[in-house]
Amino acid sequence: MRILILGADGYLGWPTCMYFSQRGHDVVGIDNYFRRNAAIALDCEPLLPTPNLIQRAKIWEKITGKRINIHVGDATNYAFLLKIFKEYKPDTVVHYAEQPSAPYSMINQEKAAFTLQNNLISTLNIVYAVKEANRDCHIIKLGTMGEYGTPNIDIEEGWLEINHKGKKDKFLFPRQASSLYHTTKIQDTDMLWFYVRTWGIRVTDLMQGPVYGISTDEADRDSQLVPNFHYDEVFGTVLNRFVVQAVANYPLTVYGKGGQIRGYLNLKDTMQCVYLSATQPVKNGELRIFNQVTETFSVNELADKVCAVGNKLGYNVNINHIENPRKEKEEHYYNPKYTGLLELGLKPNYLTDDELTGIFRKVEQYKDQINRDAIFRGIKWSAETLSGTA
Ligand code: USQ
């Protein structure tokens, strides 16, 4: 297939480009380098150095003989995006081109406004470009489990059937975000559902949990092909952060009581999930929603795992319960359903001690480059301290 990947320079974007390319598909990758530039501005660059996207594609081509077409540009620029759609006529578009960080969206008004503008306009532009260039193009959109929040009932896969006063109907599962970033993902879903109903486009919306890991079969082929591995408070996800903290002899930053439960998945499984969604597309006029996680953990459980593996590897890992900078439930019920992708053929890579050891071993190689100042800055959700860093 011809596949267009928006946000191709990201933690998920670049490995996804290689994953599809390796399997014989024509890949076009687009990125505006937002995250790269923001990480420089906030002094929180990824642990492992990553060449820019054009250079990465050249290295990939040299190793594999396979070409990934790269364009540096912004999905919120409609003229640019439409030109790409008309030139390549993609069968599938994967939308990762969003501001992906909850803390970033909470720093101040400017970053909140940027998050709203970037995430919603990029989604809108994709919908319009699909309408103009190829109405059959399958949109695969990265949503987030955070759209659902932590309700006191089981979380279904996207939809909920409601019986009300003797009548029945199916609705999007109730959503309640815990950051402005997560709110934009809810708004994306609403917008896509509107255009699915109105124009008959086809969309798969993937409700993904926090991703961890650094390794994929393709990335492991050359040190310059690694994904952007962030461990800082702004762009790093919790498990990746904990491993770096353990290696840096920095007490693990468990926020509050640590009873916050989320659904997690390995980076390798994100690749599988997106691939399975793309190769088994949904029909026109349908919004298909999958919960893209493979297992659930509390923050305390993750910290305990990192402690156990770290101590076995000779580190002296300590856990620090710090005041939670976020507003979230620290003890709650959590029972999401996540069978849809398993039914499509997902073979999960679970969080075993071996898997964690692999992340430790990689991080150890770059131990000297850990920027301790980036680990915790305390970007607060509370209204009293809106300025944060930056
Ligand atoms: N947490 C800590 N200590 C830390 C960092 C995080 O206790 O040092 C806690 C958070 O308070 C939260 C949980 O760990 O309860 C997960 O936090 P996270 O930073 O790994 O994930 P989050 O901010 O929710 O966002 C990440 C990705 C985002 C994706 C989301 C999926 O950055 O792009 O959408 O995971 S989900 O969390 O399911 O909404």
Describe the structure.
The chain has a single domain (2-374), classed as 3-Layer(aba) Sandwich (Rossmann fold), CATH 3.40.50.720. The protein contains 13 helices and 14 strands. It has helices at 13-22, 34-41, 53-64, 78-88, 102-105, 109-133, 180-199, 238-247, 267-279, 299-312, 340-344, 353-365, 372-375, and strands at 2-6, 26-31, 68-72, 92-95, 138-144, 159-164, 167-172, 202-208, 211-212, 252-255, 261-266, 287-292, 295-298, 319-322. The strands form four sheets. It has a seven-stranded parallel sheet with strand order 3-2-1-4-5-8-12, sandwiched between helices. Strand 6 and strand 7 (167-172) form a beta hairpin. The protein starts with a strand and ends in a 15-residue tail after the last helix. The site of sulfoquinovose-uridine-C1,5'-diphosphate has 21 residues, from helix 8 and strand 10.
> Total strand count, please?
14
Strand line-up in the sheet with most strands: 3-2-1-4-5-8-12
Rg of Cα set: 20 Å
- Which CATH C-level class is it? Alpha Beta
DSSP helix fraction = 25-40%
CATH architecture: 3-Layer(aba) Sandwich
Q: Average pLDDT, to the nearest integer?
A: 97
CATH superfamily: NAD(P)-binding Rossmann-like Domain
Q: Alpha-carbon distance between the termini?
A: 42 Å
- Any low-confidence stretches, pLDDT <50, length ≥5? none
Number of helices: 13
Largest sheet, in brief, is:
7 strands, parallel
- Specify the overall morphology: globular
User: How many structural domains are formed by the residues?
Assistant: 1
User: What fraction strand?
Assistant: 15-25%
Bound molecules: sulfoquinovose-uridine-C1,5'-diphosphate
Helix-and-strand structural type: alpha/beta
Q: Look up the CATH topology.
A: Rossmann fold
What order do the SSEs take from the amino end to the carboxyl end, as H and E?
Answer: EHEHHEHEHHEEEHEEHEEHEEHEHHH
Protein name: NAD-dependent epimerase/dehydratase
Domain NAD-dependent epimerase/dehydratase: 3-291
Organism: Candidatus Brocadia fulgida
Family: Belongs to the NAD(P)-dependent epimerase/dehydratase family.
